[in-house]
Amino acid sequence: MELIELARGLMASWQIRLLIGFAAAVYLYGLRPMQRWKLRHFPGPAAAWLLGSGPLVKKHGGIALAHQAMCRVYGPVWASIGSPEPMIVTDHPELARKMMLLSSMRPAFPSLFFGREREFEAGNIVAARGEKHKSLRAAWQPMFFSGSLEAFSVLMNEAAELLIDTLSAAAKAGRSVDIHRLLGDMTMAVVGTTAFGVDFHTQAGDDTASAGPDADAERLRDAANTLFRVNPMTFSVWTALLFLFPIAAPLVRLLAAALPDKGVRRMLGARQAVQDVALRLVADHRRFLAQDSAAAPKEPPNATPGAPPLPPGDAHALPANNGRARGGPVRRGVAPGSFLDLLMRAADRTTGRGFTDLEVANQVNVMILAGFETTANALAFATYLLSTNPTKRERLLAEVDAFGRKRVPTLHDLDKLPYLEACLKESLRLFPPATTIIRMATRHMELGGFRVEPGQWLAVAAYSMHRNPAYWQDPEAYLPERYMPGTPEAAAVPEHGWVPFGEGTRACIGLRFALEEAKIALLRLCQRFTFELEPGQEPLQVRQSNILAPEGGLCVRVVPRGLQPEA
Ligand code: HEM
Asked: Could you tell me which InterPro entries the record lists for this protein (predicted)?
């Protein structure tokens, strides 16, 4: 009796009623009744309270393997209930193509930040929408014209040569190396020279790097590592809350600003680093462009003394050897023809004016993120696969030898090496750095018999598609012959079943650049070395955070190749 009286007394208190009401609302919210109702016709895994499909992703070590497992159970189209939004997932080549061609928008993840930080997230080509996206894409495009790519091939070759120097030294000393890390140094150097026209000295074999790597490069590398390696959903307690309760976003934002934890501070520091470097270079270059328009073409600020003047906006003008002879003085400042230079000369079609400094810095941020680790990872995976498939490696080495072990490739030469391209494509199939391609439906569409509403989040499970035996013959095998026309393997390749770069108007704009860089690097390495995996590297452990990467690097022994037999 006393207990009942006590309970009655408690219920009479408005605070307790409020608390119970709040707990009931959170409980109901965690059941996600609206999501379940909207997607009731779709198959899919049972959703945990509040976390939705989150525990499944954790169980499989990341989204790529979780999607693969679910596609095998629920078929080519299924729904994942979860945070911040439910998602329709497919790994079916035709349906994925339809998704990517019909939905040209990426959904916006809830942001933890305000003001300028928010602008930083929204104002780049990856996040932009509609006319703004078209305008940015048009401004990016000249970077990937053949003339630009031809000029970049010189810089890519030089970066590969510095890597060769490092590897030769390691081979001589009998030291094994983390080839993933060294490839990252190389791709960062290429980003530095092509995006800015600035030599960052990331590579140990760089004989001009007497004072060690450039401080900007170190900051950028650390920043890129942070921005890429963190899980966007869990890097801070506030992001976890934001993703679980997007409904309370304004409150979570306020709390994160008032009480930033280590994750928030790390993320802000990384963004700040990229913005600082990019904005400083932009400001320097604005001054140079102002002088440039007032007078005859001049050198950019701090450019190599005595270097010839470079015509404005001409990518061909990008200096070989990063504006210096090897061992000579170093070019500083933004080079004409570099990505930054091209962007700063471009007009924003939505305003008719040039892009703001922050907008330019934002694009450079994307260029660093998109261009640094994706290509390094693709190359590391190719190295792993070639080391574990000696017959394929021998065939590749034969093609490389026929090309010439001392020959420096031009952009045009790369078309003459079909097996090299096939090896890279097959690596990108087995280990697509971007395992999942995300879009948002902009119109009603029908997907495999299911109706999809506008606003619905969509995901192409590229990793799962690439390894699905329903579409690929012997999907786990490394068979570059799949991309060699006229072979039985090529005849069995599913149409639209290879999507490491996406499809449609949001497909990877850097595809040609990435393949060019990867081909040059792999060719130059194969001219000089083979690689043996150190014990414990096989089977390869992969990290599935934002992108797929070898977990803990890839440790190899560098074996110099013997003399080329006389023809
Ligand atoms: C092996 C290397 C790379 C891979 C696997 C890769 C993959 C991808 C994928 C899957 C997408 C999304 C496509 C879609 O939604 O349909 C993408 C977008 C993008 N990538 Fe790459 N990428 C690579 C290298 C690069 C490089 C080197 C750059 C820049 C030089 C770059 C710049 C971009 C940009 C700007 C976008 C967004 C395009 C837009 O929304 O219009 N990527 N990439």
From this structure: Cyt_P450, Cyt_P450_CS, Cyt_P450_E_grp-I, Cyt_P450_sf
In a domain, 67, yes or no: no
Q: Residue 321 falls within a domain, yes or no?
A: yes
Place of tokens 């189209």: 77
| pLDDT per residue as tens digits for the range 187-199 | 988 988 888 776 7
The residue whose C-alpha atom lies closest to atom 32 belonging to ligand 1 is: 510
The band of 320, judged by pLDDT with boundaries at 50, 70 and 90, is very low
For the stretch 94-146, pLDDT in tens is 999 999 999 999 998 888 888 878 877 788 999 999 999 999 999 999 999 99
Q: Note whether residue 274 is domain-resident.
A: yes
**Which residue, judged by its Cα, is nearest atom 9 of ligand 1?**
501
Ligand 1 binding residues, C-beta < 6 A? 100, 125-126, 137, 366-367, 370-371, 374-375, 378, 433-434, 437, 500-503, 506-510, 513-514
Work out which ligand 1 atom sits closest to the CA atom of 366.
Answer: 35
**Residue 6 forms part of a structural domain:** no
The annotation status of 555 as a binding-site residue, yes or no, is no
Distance of CA 108 to the CA centre of its chain: 17
Q: What does pTM read for this prediction?
A: 0.90
What is the whole-number distance in angstroms between the Cα of residue 71 and the centre of ligand 1? Answer: 24
- Position 487 confidence tier, pLDDT thresholds 50, 70, 90: very high
CATH no. for residue 408? 1.10.630.10
| ipTM score above 0.95 | yes
Tokens of 280: 């400083």
Is it true that the peptide bond before 480 is cis, omega within 30 degrees of 0?
no
